[in-house]
Amino acid sequence: MQQPNRLRPFFENITFDREDNEMIVNFGPQHPSAHGQLRLILHLQQEQIVKAHPDVGYLHRGMEKMGENMIYNEFMPTTDRMDYIASSSNNYGFALAVEKLIDVHVPRRAKVIRMMLLEINRLISHLFWLATTALDIGAMTVFLYAFREREYLMDIIEDYCGARLTHAAIRIGGVPLDIPDNFIPDLKDFLDKLPANIKDYEDLLDTNRIWLMRMENVGIIPEEMALSWGCTGPMLRASNVAWDIRKEEPYELYDEVEFEVPYSDKCDNYARYKIYMQEMRESAKILYQTIDMYAETVKNNETELMAHSPQYISAPKLELMTQNYSLMQHFVLVTQGMRPPVGEVYIATESPKGELGFYINSQGGPYPYRLKLRAPSFWHTGILTDLLPGHYIPDVVSIIGTTNIVFGEVDR
Amino acid sequence: MRAYKPKDDVQKKSYYTDRYWVAPMVPKSMVEDDAVFAADLAAIKAKFDVSDAYIQVEQMVVYIKPEDNVGVLKLMKEELGYTQLSEMSAIDWIAKQGQFEIFYQMLSMGKRKRIRVKCFIDQNQAIESVNPLFRSADWSEREMFDMFGVKVNNHPYMKRILMPDDWEGYPLLKTYPLQGDEFAAWYEVDRIYGKEARAIIGPEIRDSARVDRYDTERFSRLGFEVPMGAEPKAVDAEETPLAYQEEGGVFMIDKFEDDKTEIISDRKR
User: Is the CB of B162 inside 8 Å of chain A's CB atoms?
Assistant: First the structure.
């Protein structure tokens, strides 16, 4: 029986000592392989899990509440803190939702830059996934290799926006800056080396006996279960559903680039690993194409970076400095915020983790009336309830690894 | 007289709104404009009451009765191919009409279409769980209960998910202040040190941007700064000069003396 006192309060109705053979283990919230703040309450028979109960909320910051008390532009840096591994994709999802609400046309050059940022973020996120999961399984070398490559990408991002982790690099209506001169040569250098790097990782892992034992036929998510649990992204594609929002409901310029959507019918951890590796190659393919698209905008002298809609988005600096009315509108936008029309919007984008959705209900005020953040990791954590029973303790680590959950996003 | 602030909605409000301001609307279009949505709506209308339906930002919005939610979602999943429940939650309209609005965001991968099914429930009305149809509703409904206090019938594990189990109040209600209420301010003090320590510790400061100039525990008094860890200065102590001339630094003017200045006529001098 628990003896609650001041320092050990009685929070849950859990009896750890039981008469039967079942043992209850608390996995996390500070377990190094729990990827942040996941707490799993596992009911065990010997080493086999009979019941799993994921407990989340240790990183809950109330972002939806914060969003309802902030003007739209103010909320942008907060979205960085959702999926902090790939923060530009959160920025982008929010920006796109507001752009649909206010119906503005984003200039082509801004779209190309955004696509570059999104795909660089996808590479960063997948490299980070590979590094941490490999480390959980015990492959230290892969961790070091993948972090080395991730560092190059972070440098490229840093050259663009000055930040490495929380970029806030995308604005509602476009991007704030053009890319610096060294951006494209650096990116090309990186992309040219990437295939060899990915081959290195695969040489280390693909036929590695330990890796195979921990990954193959472990954590099998059947197609119905993945759909029912709202799985998206690589989790869903590993379960035999070829669904990629970039392909099926194209946003930005994804309908102009060529890429494949890898999927697998194996449904296990190993299938998810292969999909992450393949997606990195596809991202590189997209990045090569965006470099050409950028060169084209330079050739056509399309220099606009922000949408022209002075009612919602501040006019360019030159206009602010020369035209009184633009300055007045800018002052109102900064001090009071834009007021989108009355209505609601739900926009889903393909973040590295899956479907990242933003639901905004606007009542015509400068603050959203309701802001719902649909984070893919939330359901990828929930599925552990049904996925873990039947598995053994070591499988928990590899399953949490391949679900690729980020707690900034689960708890918001 | 102090300005009256409504208690039923304590969210931040714009401090100024032009009295001639009329908010525009996000355009809505008829469901008939889209053949796929029209067929889906006809199938729903054949069995259930639909009070309103329209297309907004490429997605169909359908208003149904709250007691039909499981039936409509079952029909959509099994016959119309909407195999995924992307998201569901509530919107607080209590101040306006005493109701919550529940929305279910559905996705059909075969048709590449998204439908938002919505219904209104009264403040104390419970809604039936759609967990048997979509397992994703398990956590969504728990989150909705956690954030709004909307009760869900026949849910397998109706407990708080993000907030602590023993939390009081529902954070996303419009009546709940951003910095938390009285209960929130004492929550950690009570749990860690006990209620009897309240007088010693005081309530938690939940406004992270607050600066109290008389709080010498966390901040020095402005103008009476002392080095880290030193005793705070007495009230009648000499004031620390806020601006002082650094050696070799930029020359600073303490006092502007009009008679010692010179007016330069040639600006390129």
Answer: yes
Residue A376 has pLDDT above 50, yes or no: yes
Cβ atoms of A123 and A280 closer than 8 Å: yes
Give mean pLDDT, residues A129-138: 90
Q: Select from A6, A364, A378 the Cβ nearest to the Cβ of B193.
A: A6
Amino acid at A159: D
Residue A295 C-beta-side C-alpha neighbours within 13 Å: 8
Mean pLDDT, to the nearest integer, of A61-90? 92
The verdict on residue B160 lying in a domain is: no
The DSSP string of A39-88 is: EEEEEEETTEEEEEEEE--TT---HHHHHHTS-HHHHHHHHHTSSTTSHH
User: Is B240 at the interface with chain A, CB within 8 A?
Assistant: no
Chain A environment of B86 (Cβ under 8 Å): 230, 346, 348, 355, 357, 374
Residue B110: what are its φ and ψ, rounded to 5°? -65, -45
Q: Which one-letter amino acid corresponds to residue A290?
A: T
Q: How many domains does chain B have?
A: 2
Q: Which residue has the higher pLDDT, B232 or A303?
A: A303
Q: Looking at the complex, does the CB of residue A249 fall below 8 Å from at least one CB of chain B? A: yes
Contact status of B178 with chain A (Cβ, < 8 Å): yes
Is B136 in the same domain as B36?
yes
CATH number of residue B41's parent domain: 3.30.460.80
Same domain? For B61 and B98 the reply is yes
Residues B200, B104 within the same domain: no
B116 and chain A in contact, CB less than 8 A: yes
| Strand B152-153 with B127-128, pairing | parallel
B78 touches chain A (CB under 8 A): no
Per CATH, the homologous superfamily of domain A63-374 is Cytochrome-c3 Hydrogenase, chain B (1.10.645.10)
Nearest by CB: B162 against A69, A370, A411: A411
* CB-based contact B172 A225, cutoff 8 Å: no
Asked if pLDDT for residue A12 goes beyond 60, the answer is no
Among candidates A66, A100, A366 on the partner chain, residue whose Cβ is nearest the Cβ of B14: A366
Residue B3, in any domain of the structure:
no
The two structure tokens encoding residue A284: 């590189």
Residue B114 in domain: yes
In a domain, B145, yes or no: yes
Q: Are residues B137 and B187 in the same domain?
A: no
Residue type, A218: V
Q: Which residue from B16, B114, B162 is facing A57, i.e. has the nearest CB?
A: B162
This model of the complex carries an ipTM of: 0.86
Q: How far is CA B192 from CA A4, A8, B201, B251, in A?
A: 12, 8, 11, 53
Residue numbers of the domain that contains B114: 28-153
